[in-house]
Write a structure and sequence with these properties.
Blueprint: H1 55-68, E1 83-92, E2 98-100, E3 104-113, E4 125-132, E5 137-140, E6 142-145, E7 150-156, E8 161-171, H2 173-183, E9 190-198, E10 201-208, E11 217-222, E12 227-232, E13 242-249, H3 257-260, E14 270-271, E15 273-274, E16 279-282, E17 304-307, E18 310-313, H4 324-331, E19 335-340, H5 342-354, E20 359-360, E21 372-376, E22 381-387, E23 398-399, H6 406-411, E24 419-423, H7 434-454, E25 459-463, H8 474-477, H9 479-492, E26 499-501, H10 503-510, H11 519-533
Length: 534
């Protein structure tokens, strides 16, 4: 699997918090968080360490330290001092008339500011892609940051033809620095509202990921995994009466006016000037990959490429499950758990549309965010989607009575050779300090390791989070935060024998800037999943 520093190569992270305790699934009165990261600014709900850090705490700190080193802390006084895509220059190294499939195409990028002056530090958030539109082909590139204003962008040449290069400056280093500082500053960019049943009516109170000082709290604590969620306790109502939740964005921003000016559309995703055009790539007799894809294989970066609108992994061969009979033969007798967000819910809708024998089981009409179950009783197929536990950010009202963290859901799976689990985390964690995400990823890893000890034949697949729309609010939901989480997730699971469906890499290769990619992209994700389990 990809090691931390290899995929792209800009990025940061942060750390902090968590809990206190008494009961495992009940509530406790408010107490101080265990610790906070030394770099975390003071916050009304934070506190100095009261207990020594656990093994998980130390791993979180180590991962955040790695990420912190990827993003320079560079405030700026004027936009002219920030990185300019138009003034920066990309130069092809070792140019020649023809390249061969299987070779690396290397490009040097020199970052310059709006006055044409070379930058002296790195941290720019770049997106690199090659493509051949006539062949419906695309692939991601690797970006190595030398932290001195220069970058090495490397592309594996996977196919023949005229190959074009795209280098986009998503955010200048001053923008990534501002976003990283803002992410560390609090948990209040999203407001949770919980509904408590009181007879035949509801009482609503504010909730969140950390307890609020000087307010009586309902604290829903998973003591083993040290994950918590809190609500202001309504008067004379039990904490066990919490039934529904909804969220909305808070009006606050931790960005200055000058910093916010970096995140207008005209300054995001701007092409970098290049001194060369497309390159000619020929086959040169390269051998094709023959090993079939299987769970536990390494996942390099880039992990594959798109050709004729089909995803093709870099290190293994995929079979095409393009017929109903082939897909049914693979799914027969399988118990499949999809755990995560709406990007995995897309899978269950895809299965329903293209595998016509699968029918939804009625879960009493609990809505789009409730449990979804597809079944084919005759062929003993069951596919279930369930959303991950809090934080879950949506303006829709959803039930929390049967909410569980993914770790607890995995613990309930007996597992066998006909059982498969697919999980994803990311989009709903972007507005919060990243220690929340890393802790959850580590806890899921531990749950997977427990499952594989008791049932080593169970197939476990990690789907990384998707890229999303460029205009998604950068401070809360932008891809810079997703990229940091992507790096952290790949690091956490680098030594765990799971299958990887690198949705981040796929989305870039397909040039899909959509958190819910189109049907043909979902189909390619599912085809890779079927190869893992059959």
């Amino acid at each position: 699997m990809v090691c931390f520093s290899s995929p792209y190569s800009s990025g940061p992270l942060l750390l902090l918090i968590l809990l206190t305790c008494v009961t495992q699934h009940g509530y406790v009165e408010w107490t101080q968080p265990l610790y906070r990261h030394p770099s975390m600014p003071s916050h009304p709900t934070s506190a100095k360490p009261t207990k020594p850090p656990t093994e998980v705490d130390l791993e979180i700190q180590e991962i955040i330290g790695r990420l912190d080193r990827l993003v320079p802390d560079h405030p700026f006084t004027h936009v002219n001092a920030t990185t300019s895509a138009q003034h920066s220059v990309a130069t092809l190294l070792h140019p020649r008339d023809t390249f061969c499939v299987g070779e690396w195409l290397e490009i040097r990028v020199e970052a310059r500011d709006h006055q044409g002056r070379p930058k002296e530090y790195g941290g720019d958030f770049l997106r690199a892609r090659i493509s051949t539109p006539a062949r419906k082909a695309g692939a991601s590139g690797r970006v190595e940051d030398f932290h001195n204003g220069t970058y090495l962008v490397s592309f594996m040449l996977f196919w023949e033809g005229q190959v074009s290069v795209s280098l986009l400056l998503i955010h200048p280093s001053e923008g990534t620095s501002a976003l990283w500082r803002a992410r560390k500053r609090g948990y209040d960019k999203v407001i949770f509202t919980g509904s408590f049943l009181n007879g035949s009516s509801y009482v609503r109170t504010e909730c969140g990921l950390i307890p609020r000082a000087n307010t009586e709290q309902c604290q829903y604590l998973d003591q083993r995994d040290q994950e918590t969620f809190c609500c202001n306790k309504p008067q004379l109502i039990s904490c066990n009466a919490l039934t529904h939740m909804t969220t909305r964005s808070s009006p606050l921003s931790y960005l200055s006016i000058e910093e916010r000016s970096l995140f207008v559309r005209s300054r995001m995703g701007v092409p970098i000037s290049m001194t060369f055009g497309s390159v000619n790539v020929q086959s040169c007799g390269r051998e094709t990959v023959t090993e079939s894809c299987r769970v536990g294989m390494d996942s390099p970066f880039p992990s594959g490429f798109v050709l004729e609108n089909e995803w093709r992994p870099a290190l293994c061969r995929l079979s095409r499950f393009s017929t109903l009979n082939g897909t049914l033969n693979c799914l027969t007798g399988k118990l499949i758990y999809l755990m995560g967000d709406s990007t995995l819910r897309q899978w269950i809708y895809y299965f329903q549309k293209f595998v016509t024998t699968l029918k939804f089981f009625d879960h009493h009409g609990i809505g789009v965010l409730g449990i979804h179950v597809l079944m084919d009783v005759g062929k003993h197929i069951k596919i279930q989607w369930k959303k991950h536990g809090k934080p879950f950010v949506t303006q829709k009202i959803y039930e929390v009575k049967n909410d569980e963290y993914i770790t607890r859901e995995i613990d309930k799976v007996a597992g066998d050779k006909r059982t498969a689990i697919v999980f994803t985390l990311g989009q709903h964690f972007r507005p919060f300090p990243i220690d929340i995400f890393i802790r959850r990823a580590i806890n899921v890893r531990r749950a997977v390791q427990r499952l594989l000890l008791r049932s080593p034949d169970t197939k476990v697949i990690l789907k990384t989070e998707n890229t999303r729309e460029l205009l998604a609010e950068p401070e809360r939901f932008g891809d810079f935060h997703g990229y940091m989480q992507y790096l952290a997730m790949m690091h956490v699971f680098q030594d765990v024998p799971v299958g990887v469906i690198d949705a981040w890499d796929m989305n870039v290769a397909f040039s899909t800037n959509n958190v819910h990619p189109p049907e043909h992209v979902i189909g390619n994700q599912i085809n890779m999943f079927l190869n893992y389990i059959c």
